[in-house]
């Protein structure tokens, strides 16, 4: 128990660096990297700690910045609740930004959580090859090192897609003088992500051998392919994804509904390439995403069928991540994914004339207690591997081969084979398929930025919201703010709080 408590405390703070001066005596009663990292179990606990920030990130912030900041979801204005908050600024494309920085809290927290992952991974990578540490087998050491590399690559990939330029920390910070690095270019960060993800793919175990929930070689290769896709390195996407399809043992779940975990079952299933782990209960590993997404005000009687809890509680809050009419219309007739992904609830207390609201049903899994869920969050699924492969093939002029992989996704959805035959038509077909297949999985914003379609698509979407607020869940008399849909940049401003700590922003 004592060891567990000490390790937990240690991983909850920034680990201090190694002392370079061998004459410096390190107090044996003080926890530091020099006194903690002694055994295989210590590195195992450190790797576990590097995953921890994901739970808060995906529960609270990633969906705000990467899904609701798109035309897939919006907020349902609840004038009974109060003022517009920073989350609504994100949905309205009205994040206040000046001189490249913003005070938006969602941006700050997402930025910091990614750097917590990076800092913990850097500490592991700086010490794991040191002398005097014995591992049971070389494969165990490789697996731990591979996870740290994957996690660092993943965090930097999220950061660079959100901000465009970020500081590139690759070693533990030992003092204030090395805490404020200059901003690295997009290309420099891309190069590091590629190196880390490539190395991770060679060190990690595949899905069949890896402990459930940990990064696998397939997850590292999928991250690498995602990077190549962003860079438009189509041949590299093709070869990397064909490797995953051929060698890594993934498959589509026959039923789209079962591609996603329940609160305690169906986790890390055959379609799961990487997902964020939650556990229902009192241990502190739970999430509560569905409660953040539900439209409001909602009564206990109205929420009970959605959550299935024994103690349903009413809420009156701002309603975030509500599926837009645009997304709902994007599903083709007969698409099985629509009713699995999106439900409808009638809110008797709503001030809207139309009291019907859509909500994200794919995350509404029955659980025991109010505000305490255990469903995992899907980050990469095999369906996306197939769509990555289809896109890379089409961009190389292999449109017929691309259709083969696109149609695997469509067939499961109950749809006929694509009719797209030209490269341009197939490009649009894949773009649309990604939207409905991966809805609410934090993919849409990055699809808009990497294809250069932010101003085209969000500009038209914003015009519709402002022209007809009632269709976008505003009650009578309420309208979007005057600055709505005025900040259509591909990147967020860097956090203003962090800018105050460095001369480099």
From TrEMBL:
Keyword Signal attributed: yes
Domain of life of the native organism: Bacteria
Domain annotation SusD-like N-terminal: ranges: 21-229
InterPro entries on file: SusD-like_N, SusD_RagB_dom, TPR-like_helical_dom_sf
GO CC entries: cell outer membrane
Gene3D superfamilies: 1.25.40.390
Record localization: Cell outer membrane
Pfam families named in the record: SusD-like_3 (PF14322), SusD_RagB (PF07980)
RagB/SusD domain ranges (all copies): 353-475
Key words of the record: Cell outer membrane, Membrane, Signal
Stored SUPFAM superfamilies: TPR-like
Keyword NAD: no
Family designation: Belongs to the SusD family.
Protein name according to UniProt: RagB/SusD family nutrient uptake outer membrane protein
């Amino acid at each position: 128990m004592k060891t567990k408590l000490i390790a937990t405390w240690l991983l909850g703070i920034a680990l201090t660096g190694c002392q370079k001066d061998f004459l410096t005596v390190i107090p044996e009663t003080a926890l530091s990297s020099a006194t903690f990292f002694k055994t295989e179990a210590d590195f195992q606990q450190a790797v576990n700690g590097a995953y921890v920030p994901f739970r808060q990130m995906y529960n609270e912030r990633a969906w705000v910045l990467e899904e609701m900041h798109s035309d897939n979801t919006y907020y349902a204005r609840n004038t009974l609740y109060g003022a517009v908050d920073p989350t609504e600024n994100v949905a309205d494309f009205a994040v206040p930004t000046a001189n490249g920085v913003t005070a938006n809290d969602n941006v700050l927290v997402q930025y910091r959580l990614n750097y917590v992952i990076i800092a913990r991974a850097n500490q592991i990578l700086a010490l794991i090859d040191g002398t005097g540490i014995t591992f049971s087998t070389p494969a165990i050491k490789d697996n731990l090192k591979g996870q740290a590399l994957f996690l660092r690559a993943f965090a930097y990939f999220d950061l660079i897609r959100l901000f465009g330029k970020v500081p590139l920390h690759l070693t533990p910070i030992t003092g204030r003088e090395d805490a404020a690095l200059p901003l690295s270019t997009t290309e420099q960060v891309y190069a590091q992500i590629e190196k880390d993800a490539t190395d991770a793919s060679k060190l990690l175990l595949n899905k069949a051998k890896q402990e459930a929930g940990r990064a696998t070689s397939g997850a590292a290769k999928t991250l690498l392919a995602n990077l190549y896709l962003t860079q438009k390195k189509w041949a590299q996407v093709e070869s990397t994804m064909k490797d995953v399809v051929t060698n890594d043992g993934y498959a589509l779940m026959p039923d789209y509904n079962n591609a996603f975990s329940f609160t305690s079952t169906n986790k890390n299933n055959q379609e799961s390439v990487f997902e964020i782990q939650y556990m229902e209960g009192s241990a502190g590993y739970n999430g509560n995403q569905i409660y953040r997404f539900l439209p409001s005000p909602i009564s206990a009687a109205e929420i009970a069928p959605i959550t299935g809890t024994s103690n349903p509680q009413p809420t009156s809050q701002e309603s975030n991540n509500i599926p837009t009419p645009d997304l709902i219309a994007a599903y083709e007739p007969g698409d099985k994914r629509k009713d699995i992904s999106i439900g409808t609830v009638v809110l008797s207390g709503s001030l809207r004339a139309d009291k019907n609201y859509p909500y994200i049903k794919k995350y509404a899994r029955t659980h025991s207690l109010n505000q305490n869920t255990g469903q995992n969050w899907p980050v990469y699924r095999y369906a996306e591997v197939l769509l990555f492969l289809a896109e890379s093939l089409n961009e190389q002029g292999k449109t017929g081969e691309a259709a083969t992989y696109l149609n695997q996704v469509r067939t499961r959805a109950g749809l006929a084979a694509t009719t797209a035959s030209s490269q341009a038509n197939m490009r649009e077909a894949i773009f649309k398929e990604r939207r409905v297949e991966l809805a609410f999985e934090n993919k849409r914003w990055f699809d808009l930025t990497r294809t250069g379609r932010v101003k085209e698509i969000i500009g038209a979407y914003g015009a519709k919201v402002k022209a007809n607020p009632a269709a976008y869940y505003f009650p009578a008399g309420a309208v979007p703010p005057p600055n709505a849909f005025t900040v259509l940049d591909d990147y967020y401003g860097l956090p203003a709080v962090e800018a105050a700590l460095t001369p480099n922003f």
